[in-house]
Structures are given as structure tokens and as C-alpha cells.
Amino acid sequence: MCYYCGKSPDTDRIYRDSTCPSCGRDLKCCLNCVFYSKGSYRDCRESVPEEVRDKEKANFCEYFRYGDRTASGSDNLKKAQDAKNDFLKLFGGL
After folding, report:
1. Running DSSP on this structure, what letter comes out for residue 82?
2. Could you state, in chain order, the average pLDDT of each consecutive group of 10 residues for the chain (94 residues)?
3. Where are the alpha helices (DSSP H) in the chain?
4. What spatial distance separates the first Cα and last Cα of the chain, rounded to whole Å?
5. Are 18 and 9 spatial neighbours (Cβ–Cβ below 8 Å)?
6. Who's near 14: CB < 8 A, 6+ residues apart?
7. How far apart are CA 30 and CA 53, in angstroms?
């Protein structure tokens, strides 16, 4: 699914110049990569040698793997929020 519009592209292969047929945004960008993880080192779970500064633009990252981040990303966010709430309850912060 495209990070921007939520539509699935009709192709199995994503190239650097691939764009979403629905919204026209770049598909090979960090925000559409399964390894993108905001807050991780260089916002990536892979050990990328160089930081990609503009996460919304197409790039040449060799680790890029297109995938649906929306469901897993929201699950991870909920888990992180639950863990924070449990921590705060334990130490009287909530």
C-alpha cells in the first residue's frame, strides 16, 4: 500500500522512478519501505551506510523492500504506547 494514499500499486516490481498510479508520489522511498522505523538509527532497521535525508523522495537505497507498513506500524505504535502507560502506572505517573 502506498504510504500517502493507501492504494496498492498494480505491480510487483518497484523501481527508483516508480510512482503510485493513484496519487503520483514516489513509491521507492523510505516511507514505503518495510525497514523504515522512525526513531531508529537513521530511521531504518537496516544498517544503511548513508542516511537518506528526504524520506518522502525516491532514493537509491539497496536495502529497500516495498511493503505494507500501515498495519504493522499502527500495531507497533499501540504496543509502544501500552508499554509506556504500563511503565507510568508502575511508577505512579498515571
Report:
1. H
2. 86 89 93 91 91 93 81 57 82 70
3. 70-90
4. 36
5. yes
6. 27, 28, 32, 64, 66
7. 10
